[in-house]
Amino acid sequence: MLFAVKIAAGLLLCLIAPGLASGQAPGRVPIGVAVDADRFEAARAAGFDYVEVNASNVAALTDDEFEQLAGRVARLHVPVASANIFIPGGIKLVGPDVDPARQMAHVTATLTRLKRLGVSVVVLGSGGARRVPEGFSRDEAFTQLVDFCRRLAPVARAHGITIAVEPLRRQETNLINTVREGVAFVMAVDRPNVRLVVDFYHLSQEQESADIVAEAGALVAHAHIANPQGRVYPLSEDEAAYGPFFASLCKIGYAGRLTIEASTADVAAQAPRSLAMLRAALACATR
What we know:
Layout: H1 9-15, E1 31-34, H2 40-46, E2 50-54, H3 55-60, H4 63-76, E3 80-84, H5 100-117, E4 121-124, H6 138-158, E5 162-165, H7 179-189, E6 194-199, H8 200-205, H9 211-216, E7 220-225, H10 243-251, E8 258-260, H11 267-282
Parallel strand pairs: 1-2, 1-8, 2-3, 3-4, 4-5, 5-6, 6-7, 7-8
């Protein structure tokens, strides 16, 4: 089985220098938040280093609407450093209904817009698009997704973008649910700008040991976090078992970005608390 690819930690650590994929200079780990465009000002005011934008929403804008967004981003000086929700559910990446021409038309148009906004990391979660239909071969689906990423990689590279594959909990998809499976997948793709997201929420939901983050090492190009109790802002280290996750990121000298991908009832009150906790926990990563 393709999922049984063994992880050679030493090999992974020499594949790419920590932080290279994110393009970040040495220093603290930047912490951002995943928000819609109408929340950019609030994110900036709350103290986030950057925002993570919904790529499918950006792709769906008319040309005039996109020009307005790009102008607003420039005026606000809000770094739009990363993007998620890359492939909408209607564009299938696996199964009997894949349409490579449609896939690549979406990829090219979307990455062109994201580059203009300043995005350097695009998260490939897209659970609906990669869900394996009932009765379809999982091995064939795996191969289809590898093929998609290999076709995607040179387009992303031409735009200066790293693709970060995100393992998702089983409620959201049935292909690549754990970081271990994600590592096997990225190794199968074997392209320097196709890397991995580690998301504390999904790691927790799948009850996977945070040790796998340290094993994945330099394949980790991006990170997400949320309090698994309600998928809300993380506020204190004792509300969940964050410790091993932070320790693994510190162990690999993580120099990418960390995005809060969660909801909150009061961003103005909770963001400073969350930022303080996360910055303290990750201070060791770039010492």
